[in-house]
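Example record

The entry below shows one chain as it appears in the dataset: sequence first, then structure tokens.
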Amino acid sequence: MEASDPMISGLLVDEMLAKLGRFLRIAGYQVLMPKGLPDRDLAEISISRSLLIVTRDRNLANMKDVRAVRIVSDTVGHQVEELASSPLLKTAPRGPSRCPLCGSVLFTVREDDDGWADLIRDLPEGVRASQKELYPCSGCGKLYWRGSHWKKLMAVLEPLGFTPHVSREPANVDGSGREGPTR
């Protein structure tokens, strides 16, 4: 990338790499994951919104005027490694961890906070007994915690420098918790 290029504002991950896109949201990237659009439309979106395209599609990655990282691996761990080695990714902003489903910011609720009892009420007994923090999504309201899935995710992300950060307060930039590209 040349110094005159505009900064990358987020990532556009094609639907072939949806699992990678969800990992990147948790790592704090603003990720747009449109479905069913032709390459030309994806390229136009990426150019107009200054998004880095993350794709397995050679034709899309080589389109004129797009900034793209082409991923060749089939496994998400190797895909994260490929992406982490790209100098283009270093120009993409990272923030707090995001919901892997909707892309809104996650925030922390601790067991001594107001509202804890309401959040934990419908969770399985094992989760209620073991968790001291929960991470609600500021957009869709889905609830996350540090269980076995979290450990597997961290095993992939942390060795490559992607340490998730969860805000103490919900971010509501536009009233939805979304700060940038999401779907």
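Notes for this example: The chain has seven helices and seven strands. Confidence is low (pLDDT under 50) at residues 1-5, 172-183.
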